[in-house]
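Poly(A) RNA polymerase GLD2-B structure dump, as promised
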Amino acid sequence: MVASKRRLRTGNRKKTFARKQHVGRKISSTSPVHSFQTDVLDHAETEPRAYCHVVPVLQLVSKHFQIKPNKLQIWDPYFCKGTMVKHLADLGFHSVRNVNEDFYKVQQTGVPDHHVLLTNPPYSSDHLERCLTFCVESTKPCILLLPCWVAKKPYFSKLFGCRDNHIFFIASLQRYNYTMPADLVPESCKPSWVGDDGQTSPFQSCWYVYLPPPFKPGIFFENLKCNMAKSGPFDCVLAKRLQSVKWKLKKTRAQGGQGRPEAECHDQEKRKRKKHRQKCERPAVPGTVEFD
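structure tokens r here:
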């Protein structure tokens, strides 16, 4: 069982939320003593920019549960240093749980109350498969930051093969950076590909958003697309398929601009209006009488 998060290399180089001391508290600079076994190379914290890209998703989830975003209970079951609590608090989400506990033991004793699971799981051992298994069996939305290659793994197809329409992806135009904390990863343990500042960006990773029933993923996706078209963020792309993610990233980068899906949203609205107009103008069926 691993703290969080992964092995990386660099490019350019029923419990409750009542434990207030873990929600939005100031992060200590001292190294935490984890209450579970860890792999030192799994310690890598996600940069704040990545959380900005899922704000529209969290806002729509809040709307689904008819609560304000600051009341949305977000659970990250993999603990590294807890800095993600501060990152989300800065974005207006204050009910965040990320505590020093063993995720797998928690599953046995009872998971905490939460509206959504949001995490960047460790990559070593079988953590990815175990995390995805938990998500597919959950009745809550799950937002996972994973490498793009995870979707090609046999265990992913086995778990989500019949639910692929319940998943969509959000990917950044620029790779996310992850930081190996100096107090958790000794210099002697850092791989040669990790920068002097501890930052690493190994490959294209993206957010996997899974919406279980009773969520209507098609409607949710279209609403999200329009919201992001109007309000952003504009430095990422949204797609229903991983292949579409790669195509959109390539296209947007080639244009040298930011991902702005206003045209897609506008085209969608035009199609709806056209369909409605055609329905209204449809000729009467012979033998029927129409009334004004």
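The longest strand covers residues 142-147.
lmk if u need the other ones
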